[in-house]
């Protein structure tokens, strides 16, 4: 069956749970050549699967035990994303959010640090600076429905541009797969803009000065 919507992809993800999580089975189900599959079954009632395709798209799948008898089909969730070469000294995730009245805003999460002074400096300097870079383009991260969205995650090893998680109860599972892939690709090109990269690099460079600033007593 040809996949046309995120619902179709969800059904393939559900079917994948009944196989051995091998590359050939993944290629057969999803239609893309597979570079790597990582499996984490450390939690008793959850399995986490990351499928990295040769075309740089990725599927992060969470299979879980749902004890609600009225939600027998709601046993997994997935995130479709696209790898990017965007890096950051501090791990962060940023995505579009909707106020009730529809005005877009920025949701931002940054990795916690045990050093209280560094944490304060991140909150007072780094977070506002990164938000300022993304503010002019965050509208481009809108989804296709009321509560869906696109986002970016980056750390020292690289980054990914992702679409909102999909599960059986998600209204945006009706989104067209081609539209989602198209927006992910569009956002990747947008984030390669030299001006955006330069602004992000400046923030990262200033962040690298934090240890020396702390050593000087600041």
Note the main attributes of this structure.
disordered C terminus; nine-stranded antiparallel sheet; 6 helices; 9 strands; 218 residues
Order of helices and strands: HHEEEEEEHEEEHHH
- Tell me the Rg in angstroms: 19 Å
Category from helices, strands and their pairing: alpha+beta
Oligomer: single chain
The CA-CA distance between the termini, in Å, is 61 Å
Q: In summary, what is this structure?
A:
Helix content is 33%, strand content 28%. The chain is of the alpha+beta class. Strands 1, 2, 3, 4, 5, 6, 7, 8 and 9 form a nine-stranded antiparallel beta sheet that branches.
Description:
- The chain is an alpha+beta fold.
- The protein has one domain.
- It has six helices and nine strands.
- The chain has helices at residues 6-16, 23-30, 116-134, 177-190, 194-208, 210-215; strands at 34-40, 46-53, 57-64, 76-84, 92-98, 104-110, 150-155, 158-163, 166-167.
- Strands 1, 2, 3, 4, 5, 6, 7, 8 and 9 form a nine-stranded antiparallel β-sheet that branches.
- A hairpin with a 5-residue loop joins strand 1 (34-40) and strand 2.
- The radius of gyration is 19 Å and the shape is globular.
- The termini are far apart.
- 21% of the residues are buried.
- Mean pLDDT is 87; it is low at 212-218.
């Amino acid at each position: 069956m040809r996949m046309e919507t995120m619902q179709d992809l969800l059904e393939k993800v559900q079917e994948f749970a009944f196989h051995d999580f091998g590359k050939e089975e993944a290629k057969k189900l999803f239609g893309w050549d597979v570079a790597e599959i990582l499996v984490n079954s450390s939690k008793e009632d959850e399995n986490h699967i990351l499928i990295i395709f040769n075309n740089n798209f990725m599927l992060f799948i969470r299979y879980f035990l749902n004890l609600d008898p009225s939600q027998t089909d709601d046993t997994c969730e997935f995130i479709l994303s696209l790898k990017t070469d965007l890096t950051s000294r501090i791990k962060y995730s940023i995505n579009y959010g909707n106020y009730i009245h529809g005005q877009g805003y920025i949701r931002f999460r940054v990795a916690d640090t045990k050093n209280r002074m560094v944490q304060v400096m991140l909150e007072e300097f780094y977070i506002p600076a990164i938000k300022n870079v993304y503010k002019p383009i965050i509208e481009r991260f809108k989804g296709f429905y009321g509560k869906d969205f696109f986002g970016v995650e980056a750390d020292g090893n690289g980054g990914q541009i992702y679409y909102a998680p999909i599960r059986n109860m998600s209204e945006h599972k009706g989104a067209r797969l081609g539209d989602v892939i198209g927006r992910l690709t569009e956002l990747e090109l947008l984030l390669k803009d030299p001006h955006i990269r330069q602004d992000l690099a400046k923030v990262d460079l200033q962040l690298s000065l934090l240890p020396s600033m702390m050593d000087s007593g600041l």
